[in-house]
Design a protein that fits this description.
The structure holds two protein chains of two kinds.
Chain A (H helix, E strand, L loop, with lengths): L2 H12 L2 H6 L4 E5 L4 H15 L3 E4 L3 H10 L4 E4 L5 H6 L2 E15 L10 E3 H8 L9 H6 L11 E5 L4 H13 L1 H6 L12 E3 L1 H11 L3 E6 H7 L5 E3 L5 E2 L3 H9 L25 E9 L4 H17 L1 H6 L7 H15 L2
Parallel strand pairs in A: 1-2, 1-3, 5-9, 6-7, 6-8
Antiparallel strand pairs in A: 3-11, 4-8, 4-11, 9-10
Helix pairs in contact in A: 6-8, 13-15
Chain B lengths: L11 H7 L8 H33 L1 H7 L2 H4 L13 H32 L2 H16 L2 H26 L19 H26 L2 H9 L4 H30 L2 H6 L17 H8 L6 H35 L5
Helix pairs in contact in B: 2-13, 3-13, 5-8, 5-10, 6-8, 7-8, 8-10, 9-10, 10-13, 12-13
Classes of the chains: A alpha/beta, B mainly alpha.
Chain lengths: ~350, ~325
């Protein structure tokens, strides 16, 4: 159907194929670049323990979905969940892997990490260029103790399609009706204003170099680069700092057992501790794949859920709550008989 | 590096003298094979080109069917609503390449004249090598350099540009904008550095080829270096120089990685060169991996087709210019 993309992906996979031939027990996966550090870390430890290697190609969520639909990989990973209809149409199932969060970072002279407080609607207004100066009364109202400069705000966003953007835009859609109708949420959106940086590293670099800028990056990047991050007001009205606990709290408040095919986006969840811009990555499997293959895949992720928690935390991924893992296991049993 | 493909013809005589001694009975068959093999290789290039064009056109059919030629003059690019148009990227590609050519051509000319006419013998080789080394740097390195080194430094210069160039009548609006360091102008400057070695190498090669008799006659008549360059060298070599400029332009139009880092990646058309923009290759590189809907993907490939068309137009323009020049060159022997 799409020879061009298939050709590109086939070429990308050609590199991985010899390794697959060498050991029949190996697993291949492809997709999200977001979850790549986690899968890579888990697979190295898993290979040392069981001898099964997991080859994961971080070609992007779009590529991951295309590959699992074509049946060329054992699992695909996407930052954006598929709807139940879409899953049923291609005979697929999906389940979440781990939770991560993102936050706004800024470059304002004299304002230290964690000092600035923002709310969702305010961020939406900044990203729609309705608020153009840092000393705008709306920002000052949330930050009574801060000396905000009379400087222009430069908005920084991702230039590449990404799950980070999807999570961010989804959050803004939930808190701002105007954002929802004018911009909406997807892995790339039509940004009303600002400059685009490639990848988290591009956005962090722009924010660090452009005075008066604001951008959104994954939590891991904030830790790594010691960036000035904002505290957010969550849906319960509490001011929270980004933390693994906050990401998990967002997931713990979701009733995954009620959501069909785990189609829940973790942004703007209720709960006093919930971090509002939390997201997660879904693994997608084929129902009609050989049972042995699916068994290998679920065994790998089951191992990750059980033994990979501290590894996940070390790279700023929050483990799934126990209730969610139980729901995933029940889902496997129901759909795959595993 | 001999980019222009000009080869020395002096070796012909030697081979002709040696050939009767190594003649073989199957020489004719060998020659037959060789000629067809070479022909086959040449045909392969054409075949690849056609196959590529066909594959791109086929995969963009959904977008072509949906948007038609309106794709070219719509600047709406919205993956959420599924509205796609190429105009802002088209403008970004052409403007950034135009800036690059405007900056790179005179500088290349200066370097080439210096190497061929002015430099002392011991300086010629080092300067040539330095320029050629610029061509060997991977474009990702230019991108990172542009992002991490050049853009922050350029941001310091931009307030000055705002105050001095931004207030000029007529062209003022081109130079007004926030001092971000990234944007169309930055992309153009980085591109200029990238195409510089290609244009310089060709100019230098052909300038050196200008017959010494012509140049020396002019010097003998009392011409200055500028006059010799302007009246003798440039007219004598102008078709090759034009070819070199178009080669550089082709490179500028298709450059992806470096541009993606410094152009600012904003899907808007703004009057100011200091504002962010986007080019066709940069948007494809940015959005291809996460393009999840068929129409989105097909629109990105349609963009590739548009770029293919632009490159083809540039080549045709170059061929036409070279053709009309050949007829009108006064100094051609």
């Amino acid at each position: 159907m799409r020879p061009f993309r298939t050709l590109c992906l086939a070429l990308a996979f050609a590199a991985a194929l010899p390794a697959v031939d060498a050991a029949a027990a190996d697993l291949t996966g492809a997709g999200s670049t977001w979850v790549y550090p986690l899968v890579a870390k888990w697979s190295a430890a898993y290979a040392a323990k069981t001898g099964t290697h997991v080859n994961y190609q971080s070609i992007g969520s779009g590529g991951g979905i295309a590959q699992i639909k074509a049946g060329t990989v054992a699992f695909g990973a996407s930052d954006k969940p598929l709807t139940s209809e879409e899953l049923a149409k291609s005979n697929l199932i999906q389940f979440p892997t781990a939770i991560a969060g993102e936050d706004l970072v800024y470059n304002i002279a004299g304002i230290k990490p964690g000092e600035l407080v923002l709310s969702g609607p305010l961020v939406a207004d900044i990203y729609m260029a309705k608020i153009k100066k840092w000393n705008d009364p709306a920002i000052a109202k949330l930050n009574p103790g801060l000396k905000l400069p009379d400087a222009a705000i430069t908005v920084v966003h991702r230039s590449d399609g990404s799950g980070t953007t999807f999570t961010f835009a989804d959050y803004l859609s939930k808190v701002s009706p105007e954002w929802k109708s004018k911009v909406g949420a997807d892995t790339s959106v039509a940004w009303p204003t600002g400059v685009g940086g490639k990848g988290n590293e591009g956005v962090s670099s722009y924010v660090q170099h452009i005075p008066g800028s604001i951008g959104y990056v994954e939590y891991a990047y904030i830790l790594e680069n010691k960036m000035a991050y904002a505290r957010m007001i969550n849906s319960a009205g509490k001011t929270v700092s980004p933390s693994l606990k906050g990401f998990q709290a967002a997931a713990a408040n979701v009733d995954f057992t009620k959501a069909q095919d785990f189609y829940v986006i973790l942004t703007n969840q209720p709960g006093d501790e919930s971090w509002p811009i939390s997201g997660c990555t879904w693994q997608i499997l084929r129902k009609d794949a050989p049972k042995a293959t699916n068994e290998e895949v679920t065994k790998f992720f089951d191992w990750g859920f059980e033994h990979g928690q501290s590894m996940a935390e070390s790279i700023a991924f929050g483990p799934l709550p126990a209730s969610t893992i139980a729901a995933i296991k029940a889902y496997w049993k129901k759909n795959l008989g595993i | 590096m001999n980019v222009s493909g000009i080869s020395a013809p002096e070796s012909g005589g030697l081979v002709a003298n040696a050939s009767p001694a190594i003649a073989r009975p199957n020489g004719r068959a060998m020659d037959f094979c060789f000629r067809h093999l070479a022909g086959g290789m040449a045909a392969l290039v054409g075949l690849l080109l056609i196959a590529t064009l066909a594959a791109i056109a086929w995969d963009s059919r959904l977008s072509i069917h949906t948007f038609g030629f309106g794709f070219l003059w719509s600047s709406e690019w919205n993956p959420v609503t599924g509205q796609f148009g190429a105009l802002s990227f088209l403008v970004g590609t052409l403007v950034s390449s135009a800036i690059a050519m405007l900056l790179a051509t005179p500088v290349s000319f200066g370097i080439a004249i210096f190497i061929s006419e002015l430099a002392p013998r011991r300086l010629k080789q080092p300067i040539s090598s330095a320029v050629e080394l610029l061509a060997a740097i991977p474009s990702i390195v230019y991108g990172l350099w542009g992002l991490l080194v050049f853009a922050p430094a350029f941001a310091q210069v931009e307030p000055w540009i705002n105050d001095h160039l931004g207030t000029l009548p007529g062209i003022g609006p081109l130079f007004q904008g926030p001092p971000m360091g990234i944007g169309m102008l930055t992309a153009g400057i980085v591109l200029a550095i990238m195409v510089l070695p290609f244009i310089t190498a060709i100019m230098r090669d052909v300038f050196i080829m200008t017959p010494a008799a012509l140049k020396e006659s002019a010097y003998g008549l009392g011409c200055t270096t500028w006059e010799v360059s302007r009246r003798i060298i440039l007219p004598y070599t102008r078709s090759a120089v034009t070819g070199g400029i178009f080669l550089g332009l082709g490179r500028a139009l298709g450059e992806t990685m470096a541009i993606t880092f410094v152009i600012g990646n904003s899907n808007t058309i703004s009057a100011s060169l200091l504002m962010p923009g986007a080019s066709i290759p940069s948007v494809i590189a940015n959005e291809f991996t996460e393009a999840t809907t068929p129409l989105y993907l097909s629109s990105l490939i349609y963009l590739g087709l548009v770029l293919f068309g632009i490159t083809l137009l540039v080549r045709l323009l170059a061929a036409w210019m070279l053709h009309s020049m050949k007829r009108g060159t006064p100094l051609r022997p």
